[in-house]
Write a structure and sequence with these properties.
This is Gfo/Idh/MocA-like oxidoreductase N-terminal domain-containing protein. It is built from eleven helices and 16 strands.
Length: about 300
């Protein structure tokens, strides 16, 4: 039986990974930073509460597994994470483990020409793994069993502390409003995290870890390609309320970002929202043939928001 250590089980991605891995008959150790937070109760899952000073205990747990999972999101507050990504990379180097990183933190550069009035066309922007992280992982790959980096798009979740989608949706008693940060029909990449976790678990279970030992693998998970207009139509079905799309007031967001780290990260991605992204298609993670349809994914996400 394969054995995994999953960081951040109290968050959506960590919880989804635990569920998918146990369904594929992995034995899972899950790390939480607060026992009062919600975590799944599963047959092959053992939970442990660790604080930043519990590094020795983390190493003891890691000695019992062969794969470590770490989620590095752009869209949530990481101040409560007990261990940094650098700490986890060093751990996997020292113990020669397989490391799986899921992330939507990217390097991207924009062309100044689209800002000129006569330059009408705004092309999608190529994205890549941050160069500093890539160099660090390349150096670590010779010491680890394997390193997998799975890149994703915006998370398809309506809760504010898990993804940007919740920031865009405003609800009243009889209707919903979506503040669109881009043209309503511009396509973006959206990821439903349970689907991503299932694809990762399937891939790692079906591919022997001894193959390409010491290699660094970077893949991109396309998820759902959808516009704000598509999401509005699906939310109408999910919530039972009419949905109205309004332009996002970027000036107001600029002011709010002065006081909010989350909004500052949102503002940093303004150009990506307005122009969309291009991902390297040659290194894409295969999606499950039973990928959750967009409408169903939004319905499930919306129910979790309203229950909460």
């Amino acid at each position: 039986m394969k054995r995994a250590l999953v960081l951040g089980v109290e968050h959506v991605m960590g919880s989804c990974l635990c569920e998918s891995l146990t369904q594929h008959e992995w034995d899972v150790l899950g790390v939480v930073s607060d026992t009062e937070t919600t975590a799944p109760i599963l047959g092959n899952l053992t939970l442990a509460e660790l604080l930043p000073e519990d590094l020795d205990f983390l190493y003891q747990l890691a000695e019992e597994v062969d794969t470590v999972f770490f989620h590095q999101p752009y869209e949530s507050d990481e101040t409560n994470a007990p261990f940094s990504l650098e700490t986890i990379i060093t751990l996997c180097e020292n113990l020669k483990l397989q490391l799986v990183i899921t992330t939507n933190q990217y390097d991207f550069s924009t062309n100044w020409l689209p800002s000129l009035a006569f330059w009408r066309k705004k092309n999608p922007i190529p994205i890549s793994v941050p160069s500093a992280l890539l160099q660090r992982l390349e150096a670590a790959s010779s010491h680890c069993e394997q390193i997998h980096v799975v890149c994703l798009g915006h998370t398809l979740d309506c809760r504010n502390n898990e993804g940007y989608l919740g920031l865009l949706i405003k609800e009243t008693d009889d209707r919903l409003y979506i503040q669109s940060p881009s043209a309503a029909n511009l396509q973006h990449h959206w990821t439903y995290l349970p689907d991503l976790a299932s694809s990762i678990a399937t891939h790692l279970t079906d591919c022997p870890s001894q193959a390409n030992k010491g290699a660094l693998h970077i893949s991109y998970y396309a998820g759902h390609e959808a516009s704000i207009a598509d999401i509005a139509r699906c939310l109408t079905l999910s919530s039972g309320k009419p949905v109205f799309i309004t332009p996002l007031p970027w000036l107001a967001m600029d002011v709010i970002s002065l006081f909010s780290p989350l909004f500052r990260r949102f503002m940093h991605l303004r150009t990506l929202w307005q122009q969309g992204i291009v991902t390297p298609r040659s290194h894409s993670l295969s999606q499950s043939s039973e990928q959750t349809p967009l409408a169903l994914a939004l319905s499930q996400s919306w129910r979790k928001k309203t229950i909460k």
